[in-house]
Design brief:
With about 90 residues, the chain is mainly alpha-helical. The protein has helices spanning about 5-25, 35-50, 50-65, 75-90. The protein contains four helices and no strands. Mean pLDDT is about 80; it is low at about 25-30.
Length: about 90
């Protein structure tokens, strides 16, 4: 399973928000944990990471340039039928 930088940021945001609530007495789950700059430093590091989509696009471009990118007809049909099914479900 891949975890994108966006997902990590969401978890960090939730943690920081929850820790802030705990410090204000709204929850006791993180009440004894001091809020320090470590979480801020981790957040800055993750913000520097590329998004998962950027990585995928970069990899695809490299494969296309090298001539090693191949999509089978089965994969194309699966994608088309999947999109068609999703559109039909969304309408109903």
């Amino acid at each position: 399973m891949k975890i994108s930088a966006r997902q990590v940021r969401a978890v960090l945001d939730a943690y920081v928000h929850h820790a802030g609530d705990a410090a204000r007495g709204r929850s006791d789950a993180f009440a004894n944990q001091p809020k320090d700059s470590a979480s801020d430093e981790i957040r800055r590091e993750f913000e520097l990471l590329p998004e998962e989509r950027d990585i995928v696009v970069h990899d695809l471009r490299a494969k296309i340039r090298s001539g090693s990118y191949f999509v089978s007809s089965t994969e194309i049909v699966d994608a088309l039928l999947g999109r068609l099914a999703a559109n039909l479900i969304a309408r109903h």
